[in-house]
Write a structure and sequence with these properties.
Elements (H helix, E strand, L loop, with lengths): L12 H9 L5 H14 L6 E4 L1 H17 L9 E5 L6 H4 L20 H8 L3 E6 L33 H8 L5 E6 L5 H7 L2 E4 L19 E6 L2 H11 L17 H6 L15 E5 L9 H16 L3 E5 L7 H16 L18 H12 L2 H14 L4 H22 L5 E5 L14 H6 L5 H6 L3 E8 L9 E8 L4 H14 L10
Helix pairs in contact: 2-3, 6-7, 8-17, 11-13, 11-14
This protein binds glutamine.
Length: 505
């Protein structure tokens, strides 16, 4: 058999699976090729840790499984994990930092469930990926280990908090990566770098071993070059886990099969016939960047050509999702991060007086400014006398935001709009934190409601200031409708080539 036409790094998960199964390439060759590329483009800042020896050992084991005929669809596929997932240090040789000084060099004694499942599926772990400290941020500039850079323009941010994941996938350093999304951290960096990412319904992927930020919002998901590749990964990553108290008790799902399932009444030319796509008017405000609006509208036109019908809907509390999220997420974070006190794990201040002084110095040294800001906001809104005014009020509005979505889903099957109000902004701008919070406006509602949502490449900015940067289309589905989202995105990707465009490095 002939070798694949494209270079190895250009192939996605599905194509690599076929090449590996046909023995056109070995997992060891593939791993070595990507390791060389990672070294060549180390300046992008995508990786926080690599371990070539353990990766090659996994690749050799994968090649043996392929030769023995015991391989699955992901056997031998190299990928990398956001450094918010703990990785068993003894097994992988990979530390876990969550992008924080607090966990510098931390050697986890176990793997996150998502990691363990992908390892069990035969994937090869190339390393750990840069992210904002404790996943708090929208640009990857809150990482204690320096920023990741956008491969389309290295002077721009890749988005965040899963910025390293987005950079690595977009730069073709890895075919796919894991990410996490609390308020947009899979979708927004996917949008900023022209890749595909899905945040499943809250509870679909286990949170066990994900360094906790805001537990009622945190979800894991895949970031890859296509909806098809995301479907393959999500099938392996997801499923009930008794070690996560909020894990959804559902049978394992084959998202690839669900993605391919034809719609009733659809045809090859009109695969989306009968699909009603709701456009919330609040997602298309006058202030939306023309670059974003233009790309999103062109993707919607393609979806219409495929048979979908566009309907107007409303999510009236869209704006409120910003204050609601920025109360609830810091409240939960302030509680989750109380464990970093210098006693059991992580950083401990070298010079200190009594125990209280040790706590204070450890936390002052270990946490960066954004994390401290969130701990202070969270502690404030949970404190006696303010709890009812802020936290309780936010919880009530959260419920109303979720109800607004259910009202929309009376009139449509999928909701569509932009992922972010702009394309990727310049690195090192010293933005006001509020600017970043406001830019989360289109991803927060779906997170607060716990709905599945994805970012799908929708073309490129056309204005001069947009710099030709990628734009993502957001698709939001009702609970557990990941299959329908992936089906819609796959149909779009069968008809368009935005997701195939590569940055020149
Ligand atoms: N940008 C949001 C924040 O800073 C979302 C982060 C995330 O989803 N992890 O909280």
């Amino acid at each position: 058999m002939s070798a694949p036409q494209q270079a190895l790094h250009q192939l996605g998960v599905a194509a690599l699976g076929r090449a590996l199964a046909a023995r056109q390439v070995s997992s060891v060759e593939l791993t070595q090729a990507l390791q060389a590329r990672m070294a060549q483009h180390a300046g992008l800042g995508a990786f926080l840790a690599t371990n070539h020896e353990t990766a090659l050992a996994e690749a050799r084991a994968a090649d043996a499984a392929i030769a023995a005929g015991t391989a699955g669809p992901l056997t031998g596929i190299p990928l990398a994990h956001k450094d918010i997932f703990v990785t068993d240090y003894a097994r992988s040789g990979l530390p876990t930092t969550a992008g924080s000084q607090m966990l510098k060099g931390y050697a986890s004694p176990f793997d996150a469930t998502v990691v363990a499942r992908l390892v069990a599926a035969g994937t090869v772990t190339l390393g750990k990926l840069n992210c904002d400290e404790f996943a708090m941020g929208s640009a990857n500039e809150n990482s204690a280990y320096g920023p990741a850079r956008n491969p389309w323009d290295a002077t721009r941010v890749p988005g965040g908090s899963s910025g390293g994941s987005a950079t690595a996938v977009a730069a073709r350093l890895v075919p796919a990566a894991t990410g996490t999304d609390t308020g947009g951290s899979i979708r927004q960096p996917a949008s900023f770098t022209g890749i595909t990412g899905i945040k499943p319904t809250y509870g679909v992927c286990s949170r066990y071993g994900m360094v906790a930020f805001a537990s009622s919002l945190d979800q894991a998901g895949p970031m890859a070059r296509s909806a098809e590749d995301c479907a393959l990964l999500l099938s392996a990553m997801s499923g009930f886990d008794e070690r996560d108290a909020t894990s959804a008790e559902r049978p394992p799902q084959d998202f690839h099969a669900l993605m391919l399932e034809p719609r009733a009444g659809a045809s090859a030319a009109k695969p989306l016939q009968g699909l009603r796509i709701g456009l919330p008017k609040e997602f298309f405000p006058a202030a939306l960047a023309a670059d974003v609006n233009g790309a999103v509208r062109s993707a919607l036109t393609e979806l219409e050509k495929l048979g979908a019908a566009l309907v107007d809907v409303s999510l009236p509390r869209t704006e409120l999702s910003i204050p609601v999220y920025y109360l609830i997420a810091p409240a939960e974070a302030s509680s989750n991060l109380s464990r970093f006190d210098g006693v059991k794990f992580g950083h401990r201040a070298a010079q200190h007086g009594d125990l209280l002084d040790m706590y204070k110095k450890t936390r002052a040294e270990g946490f960066g400014p954004e994390v401290k800001r969130r701990i202070m906001i969270g502690t404030y809104v949970l404190s006696h006398g303010y709890y009812d005014a802020y936290y309780l009020q936010a919880q009530k509005l959260r419920r109303m935001i979720a109800d607004d979505f259910q009202a929309c889903f009376q009139h449509c099957d999928v909701i569509a709009g932009p992922v972010a109000p702009t394309v990727a902004w310049a690195l090192g701008q010293q933005r006001n934190p509020l600017q970043d919070y406001l830019a989360d406006i289109f991803t927060l509602p779906g997170s607060l409601a716990g709905l599945p949502a994805m970012s799908v490449p929708a073309g490129f900015a056309k204005s001069e200031e947009g710099g030709g940067l990628p734009v993502g289309l957001q698709l939001i589905g009702n609970y557990f409708q990941e299959g329908q989202l992936l089906h819609t995105a796959h149909a779009l990707q069968q008809a368009t080539d935005w997701h195939l465009k590569e940055p020149t490095l």
